[in-house]
Design a protein that fits this description.
Blueprint lengths: L2 H37 L11 E7 L2 E6 L38 H9 L5 E6 L9 E7 L9 E4 L3 H9 L19 E5 L2 E8 L2 E8 L4 E7 L2 H9 L7
Antiparallel strand pairs: 1-2, 3-4, 4-5, 5-9, 6-7, 7-8, 8-9
């Protein structure tokens, strides 16, 4: 073999090795692309997304996704979403009445009273003998000189006996008009009524027949006390 023939043979062998290496590298590249497509959920027909690198400033690079890239917008919260209406508050807006912490009899008596007339009830400082329950309450409207007392008895007879016990304070026993400050012992439309002087005070005591309740109130002058008594609400059952 001549020198020129040997040289052509070596060149042909190098070219063959070169193209075989190119084919092997192409096969490896195709395998890598296929594996990447499987990992990203794509199929063999799914084009591979490309990333274009553009220079934004000297010394830095920014990656710009291709047209297949999707930007995710954060979902608006309830405060930002205008289609979301605020929840309506539940429950009653009226203040709840505090639970009674007195004895059952005192709680029952307090429940019978009208809140428009008496409030801030508490156990009476000097309950009468034989009372089931007795309360001292603050008058809402002006009239009494100090807190009236309300008493619950076991029977109407016990309530009437307690009211009539004030009879000893009457000076002459004449039946007068309570509105003018006179002394009186008798009845009214709902039970017994007594108007008399009790020391420096003018006192009025009365009963509620059928409910075994009696009340007493005092004032320096009779007219405001009588007007307050006339405006009292009925007791509840």
């Amino acid at each position: 073999m001549s020198g020129r023939s040997a040289q052509r043979a070596r060149t042909s062998w190098r070219e063959r090795v070169h193209w075989e290496m190119v084919g092997a590298l192409a096969g490896i590249g195709g395998l890598i692309v296929a594996l990447a497509a499987l990992r990203t959920g794509g199929g063999p027909d799914t084009p591979t997304p490309t990333v274009t690198v553009t220079a934004s400033s000297p010394g830095t690079e920014s990656a710009t996704p291709s047209s297949r890239s999707r930007s995710r917008t954060p979902k608006p919260t309830a405060e930002e979403d205008p289609s979301t209406e605020p929840a309506e508050p539940t429950g009653s807006t009226e203040p709840a009445r505090s639970a009674c912490v007195m004895t059952p009899g005192e709680c029952r008596l307090e429940k019978m009273l009208g809140s428009a007339d008496l409030r801030n009830c508490r156990p009476a400082a000097r309950p009468p003998a034989g009372a089931v329950a007795a309360l001292d309450c603050t008058a809402v409207r002006s009239g009494p000189g100090h807190d009236p007392m309300i008493v619950l008895f076991r029977s109407d007879a016990d309530a009437e006996t307690w009211v009539e016990s004030y009879w000893w304070a009457l000076h002459d026993g004449r039946g007068g008009n309570c509105a003018t400050g006179a002394e009186y012992k008798g009845t009214w439309v709902r039970g017994k009524l007594l108007c008399t002087l009790n020391g420096p005070y003018y006192a009025m005591s009365w009963t509620y027949t059928g409910q075994s309740v009696a009340m007493t109130a005092e004032a320096w002058t009779p007219q405001p006390l009588y007007a307050w008594w006339q405006g009292l609400s009925l007791l509840s059952d």
